[in-house]
Structure formats: structure tokens, C-alpha cells
Amino acid sequence: MTSTRQQTEPAPVPETALAGSPVDREDLRARVSAALDGFLERQDARLAGVAHEVGELVVALRELLAGGKRLRPAFAYWGWRAAGMPDDDRMITAAAALELFQACAIVHDDVMDRSDLRRGRPAAHRRFATLHRAEGWRGDADAFGTAAAILLGDLCLSWSDEMFFGSGLEPERLERAREIFDEMRTELMGGQYLDLVEQALGGGSVPRARRVIQYKSARYTVLRPLQLGAALAGASGELTDCYSAYGLPLGEAFQLRDDVLGVFGDPDETGKPAGDDLREGKRTVLVAVAAERGTRAQRTVLERHLGDPALDAGGVAALRKVIVATGAVGEVERMIDQLTGRALAALDRAPVEPHAGQVLRELATAATARRD
Description:
By secondary structure, this protein is mainly alpha-helical. The protein has helices at 28-48, 55-65, 71-82, 89-113, 124-135, 141-165, 171-201, 206-233, 237-264, 267-270, 276-280, 285-293, 296-305, 313-325, 328-349, 354-368; strands at residues 117-118, 121-122. The protein has one domain (14-368): Farnesyl Diphosphate Synthase (Orthogonal Bundle), CATH 1.10.600.10. It has 16 helices and two strands. A two-stranded antiparallel ribbon has the order 1-2. Strand 1 and strand 2 (121-122) form a beta hairpin. Helix 4 (89-113) packs antiparallel against helix 6, helix 12 crosses helix 14 (313-325) and helix 15 runs antiparallel to helix 16 (354-368). The protein is globular.
């Protein structure tokens, strides 16, 4: 039987999910921002020794980081706390390094997707292209913007390592986390390449689309940050296993929600134009379900409009209509519910400190019932 939900657009976000963010517990968001500000001040001073022009990289990065949700640092920090560890500014610094790692991912992702906006501002490569034009420099402004953004992403990757391992935590704790940190970076780059391949192939099955999000987003959003917190805390194998059972499905649910927002989200909330993922031709699980379930006529609409950089409001509406009519939205919402339920069930079995466990439960809602 087809549910009523499958015939409608995404379910509204529960009001309970909007009241007070768990990312602000222990003043985490502000402390992470302060740690990043201090780190970038030091890097700005170092770059000044190269040339004053290079400081533009830090300016661009500050603008990008200002809009972050701080979910990844939150999972790392509360992974530490749930293992019974006390509040520690050094752990805040280590967790904040994940924002630099994410910055690397999104700057490069925006270049590959040719995105115009990120978090309501021009994407880094567009920002640098605009700088080139404003200064009246020679050469191709867009090529300059792309090159500068690649360098900025590379710098963020390097700085994430420097900030994490320079957090001040004891060397033996950092050494326990090194393998996870390295795996996280390798997985992300592999996932980004898989994403490129899927787009080049024109998309594939739902399992293949889910494989992409596992490595491109899910693992480094929830699972790896939690495992980093556990490793730094010296957590037991039992707790680490529970974190895996909680973090992997929750990370996938997070990305599935992101995919829904990429098609149906409010631009004022998401910071990106309406239907931008459709314009970029992203081969998401949502699209894969629609393609598998669609009629020949519906698949023709998908093939005609998906990935058209000039896609207008009419084209976006046509694609949305197909995605809703095929039941793809309802199916992805079902996946999100199922995955989140699995994550919370694993958390209920975990030997965690009670207060931190409750925050992790709230973070699961924040990650999957969001608007941006």
C-alpha cells in the first residue's frame, strides 16, 4: 500500500527539534568558534611573512567558517564526554579542527560541482573570481578563482592536521587517534571520487548512491568524530563498537536529509538556490529512487532536466513533481526514520555517561530533523 506521506513533499520539522540546539550545550558552539579564531589569527600572522596578499586566504576562510553548524566538533566532544571524560579546552581545540577538515571538503566540492553559493555567500571559487575582476587583474577570472579555491582547500586540510595534533592533549591520546584521523581523510577523498564517477556514469542504483554518501559524508560527519572522541578518551572497545552502531546509520540519515533539503529546502534556510542539487546533477539516493520507480515519461523528465546548469524554476518544479510522484521522497523519509531509529537503539545500549548520552540523543534529532 502506498502511504499518504509518499504523495506529499517532505514532512515538516518537529517543533521540538527547533527548541534550543544541543550544539550549544557547554557553550560548545562559541568555544569552537573562539578556538578557530585564535588558530586563524596565528596562521594569518604566519602568512603575513609570505606577503600581505596571501592574507586573503584567511579572510575567505573566516567567512566560510562563520556559517558552520559545528555538528562534527559536537559529536567529537560529546563522544569524549560520554566516555566519562571531563570538560577540557584542549578537547574543544581538537574537535574544532574538524571544521577545518570540513572546510576543505566543501571548498573542493563546490569547485567540482561549480556551485555559486555556500551558506548564503558566494562559494570560495566565485569569491576569488570576483576579487580578480574587481582588481582588474590579467587572465581568466574564473580560472583564477578555481585555482585559489583549490589552494584554500589544500590549506584547510593541512591546517586541520596542525590544529588537531597541536591541541595540547597528551601525546599518547593523540597517537591513539591518529589512525582514525588518517582513515577519515582517505575515506572522504575516495568518496568524493566515487561521486564524480557516479555523475560521469549518469547515476546508478540506490545501493551505489548510498555507497557514495557513506564515504563522501556519513563517516566523517558522525562516525569518525565520535571515534576520535572515544580514542582520545581511551574508551573501551565496547563503547567504541556502540559508537559505530550509532554513528554510521546516523551519518547516512544526516546526508539523506541533506539530499532532501538540496531539492526541497528553503534557500533562506539552506543558503543555496532552490533546486541547486538538481541543477548540479547530483546523483543522490532521492534521484536514484525516482529513476528506479519512474515511468518512461518520468525518467525522460529526469534525463532532460537533471544536471542542466541553466535549469529554471519551471524545470525545478518539473523535477520535484517527478520525485514526489514516484514516492522517492516518502522512501527517503522512511530511510531517515529507520536509520535514526537504529542509531538511537544502539545509543540506548551504550555504556555512556548519562548526561552526555542525552546530548548525543538530541544531536541525532538535530542532525536529521533540520532545515538547513
